[in-house]
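User: I'm writing a tutorial on reading structure tokens. Could you give me a worked example: one chain, its sequence, then its tokens, then a sentence or two explaining what the tokens reveal?
Assistant: Sure. Here is the example chain.
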Amino acid sequence: MRLMITPAICAFSIVTFPALAGEKVDLVRVHKAERRLELIGDGKALRSYGIALGGDPVGHKHQEGDQRTPEGRYILDWRNPNSIAHKSLHVSYPNTDDLAAAKARGVDAGGMIMIHGQPNGFGWWGWLLQLVDWTDGCIAVTDSDMDEIWAMVADGTPIEIER
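And here are its predicted structure tokens:
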């Protein structure tokens, strides 16, 4: 992860829905164009968060360093409580199709795509960082949003990343 401030400032709104005891997240859905991440349970949006993406977010990730977030269906397969950002959940990119496409182009597919909070020590200005796309292709949220996502999303939860 690297900090990159770009001139593209995105407008987004954060909508939080009240939690019910026993809510189960079946799916995490990311809408890249809307800069929004939703936690879905029983077919309904349980939570919605504003996100920041990579410095060149339009389109599917093709290779290491392209600053894009992959698009498609993946799994949140492990978590890191001691990340360089405030907690992180790993997205299972690249899958076999991503690897084959990268190999055909003669490039490294990249990896280590995460949902994460703000860089450690910078959580206090996370609201400002969320106004720009600053990651290398990860999905960034505020630290308080990451705490909630961390508590509600189990390892093995599918994630759909849409344009």
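What the tokens reveal: Residues 52-156 form one domain. Residues 96-105 form the longest helix (10 residues).
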